[in-house]
Amino acid sequence: MGYITSCYRQQGDGAASLLLQQYLCGQMPVCFACISAGTGRDGWGDENGCGNKDEARDRAGGYLTGRLLIWFRGFPWRSLAKGKEKYFARVRRELEKTIRQSDRELWDGAVLAGGETVDLAGMLCADENVILFGRGRHRIFLLNTMFGKGHVRELSGERDSSGLWFWEGAMESNVGILLTSQDFGNCLSPRLLQQVLNVNEAFTQEQADKRLKELAREGERAGGRNMAAVVLYRREFEPG
């Protein structure tokens, strides 16, 4: 088994931050992805000396993805490959700890006002195991089949007082996960998503790249701003 991944990030002021990392630990593929952007209330950036609102969002989202990247690179993934049950519980705990610590650091540094948070949508996949996490207006979709046709279903979990949620499960072969920023997910209908990202058809890296770009163009025509997306397919082939 292995993963096919593709990503898109629209350039410009206030662009969403996107993180995509893939490792191969022995025969176990690992993929970590996150899209983030600060929420910020209207006019907040200027009041706190951080420039305009888009700049504040850009700084906050970039800071969070940077902290998550440091965590990911420091985690003992080879140990996870030897004992997934023990270490996967640790993955969830450390992910949540890193996000909450980043929130406090953004508040302490006055990049975000107290109580403001960073919108995010992320996934960590290790072989068939998956942890999804999100907050705010970014979205996560499961790509699978129903009655032999492509099917899309939005995923979420129980939200805590800060709006953060986690979802854990197992991912079968020949299914996919799509992370989207607010506009990418909102500008495109579920019907269009399931037509373009049909897991029965998007088998190769080239197809995945082409189909995500097609969706991005449709989102831009619909007026989407600061769009970003990551798509992952779990396929029956040997990684590497």
Notable traits:
240 residues; alpha+beta; 5-stranded antiparallel sheet; 10 strands; 32% strand
Please tell me about this protein's structure:
This protein has 240 residues and is of the alpha+beta class. Helices cover 36% and strands 32% of the residues. It contains seven helices and ten strands. It has a five-stranded antiparallel beta sheet. Strand 2 and strand 3 form a beta hairpin. Helix 2 runs antiparallel to helix 4. It is globular, with a radius of gyration of 18 Å. The termini are close together. About 5% of the residues have low confidence.
Summarize the structure.
With 240 residues, the protein is of the alpha+beta class.
Strand content: 25-35%
Q: Could you tell me the mean pLDDT?
A: 84
Sequence of secondary-structure elements: EEEHHHHEEEEEEHHHE
For the report, how would you describe the main beta sheet?
Answer: 5 strands, antiparallel
As residue ranges, the low-confidence spans are 39-51
Give the spatial strand order of the biggest sheet: 1-10-9-6-7
Helix content: 25-40%
Structural class: alpha+beta
β-strand number: 10
Task: Report how far apart the termini are.
Answer: 10 Å
Q: What is the C-alpha radius of gyration, as a whole number of Å?
A: 18 Å
Number of helices: 7
Query: How would you describe the shape?
Result: globular
